[in-house]
Design a protein that fits this description.
The protein contains ten helices and seven strands. By secondary structure, the chain is an alpha/beta fold. It folds into two domains: 233 residues, Spore Coat Polysaccharide Biosynthesis Protein SpsA, Chain A (Alpha-Beta Complex); 63 residues. β2, α2 and β3 form a beta-alpha-beta unit. α5 runs parallel beside α8 and α9 runs antiparallel to α10. The longest helix is centred in the C-terminal third of the chain and has 30 residues. It is elongated.
Length: 319
């Protein structure tokens, strides 16, 4: 490890008083500074660290009210940059994330292969046996939606909070627009794609402790769905219509027109057939089926082109 590289760790702290001291004690000497952000924690995680942690690298920042994991992480980013950090690692304070992997998650950034790295708990199959089936299926669905909204088709486990980012990339982001709550990781990926940053998965074994999630899944589903849809439309507009207009843009436009036209014609013919009892002619069926199939083919071609448009050249090397 290059000793001249300043590595900072940011730990959002909210109801993690049982684990946070153990997490800090496991952080190795490769880290130059540690920022614990007490996010209005009701059990005083930050106060506990300030009073009992002997590590001189630790700085505790207090939020008067809860800002969410994104708000706490962004505060940590800002303090780390002021401290001269080159790479900023974010880990949770609940004991799920092993600090021993810090050397691994920062390596692609140090080697100039990525601007932002994140953990992937789904790479090692033997580590998934303790993961609930509902979480496995839910993460698979969420990963696909996140791929669509962020444009990073080659990543998985999008909500994994074990991340590392180059400080130059943080400075390029529109920090004030990033979601402060549980949508933070997904929204950050969207913002990274907009500036064409390279994102890379780093495989970690899955680990589950006795932590309790503060996320209300049922309340979050409609909120997350709306935000993913919003980011999908924004990303496509920015990348294929505002910054550039090419054959890929035409594929999307013509594909949507053909598909919607086919569905409209087919629906009208189906409704008319039900009302009158008259079976639709083969010509009517073809009139509905042909544009639908052509539209699907054009939309699949657009998705293939979008997959090939994943950023490949790290941005921080070009700045």
């Amino acid at each position: 490890m290059n000793d001249s590289i300043h590595i900072s760790v940011v730990i959002p702290a909210y109801r993690v008083s049982r684990h946070i001291l153990g997490v800090i004690s496991a952080i190795g000497p490769e880290v130059s500074s540690i920022f614990v952000v007490d996010d209005g924690c009701p059990d005083g995680s930050g106060k506990l660290v300030k009073e009992l942690c002997p590590d001189s690298r630790v700085n505790v920042i207090f939020h008067e009210s809860n800002c969410g994991v994104g708000g706490a992480t962004i505060t940590g980013y800002q303090y780390a940059i002021k401290a001269g950090a080159d790479i900023i690692v974010k880990i949770d304070g609940d004991g799920q994330m092993n600090p021993a992997y810090i050397n691994i998650i920062i390596l692609p950034i140090i080697n100039g292969l990525a601007d932002y790295t994140k953990g992937n708990r789904f790479y090692y199959l033997e580590g998934l046996q303790n993961m609930p089936i509902a979480r496995l299926l839910g993460n698979a669905a969420l990963s696909f939606i996140t791929k669509l909204s962020t444009g990073y088709w080659d990543i998985f486990d999008p909500t994994n909070g074990y991340t590392a980012i180059h400080s130059k990339i943080v400075e390029r982001l529109t920090i004030e627009k990033i979601d402060r709550r549980y949508f933070f990781e997904s929204d950050l990926l969207f913002r990274l794609n907009i500036i064409r940053a390279v994102v890379m998965d780093v495989p970690f074994p899955a680990k589950y402790a006795d932590e309790e999630s503060n996320l209300n899944i049922f309340r979050s589903i409609p909120e997350f769905t709306f935000k993913h849809l919003r980011n999908t439309l924004k990303r496509i507009f920015y990348n294929y219509f505002l910054r550039d207009f090419s054959a890929v843009s035409l594929q999307l436009i013509l594909g949507l027109i053909a598909f919607l036209a086919g569905v409209f014609i087919g629906s009208n013919a189906w409704i008319h057939s039900i009302r009158t009892g008259v079976v639709a002619t083969s010509g009517t069926v073809m009139l509905a089926a042909l544009p639908t199939l052509v539209g699907i083919q054009l939309l699949l071609s657009f998705l293939a082109a979008d997959y090939g448009n994943v950023p490949k050249i790290p941005l921080h090397k070009r700045l």
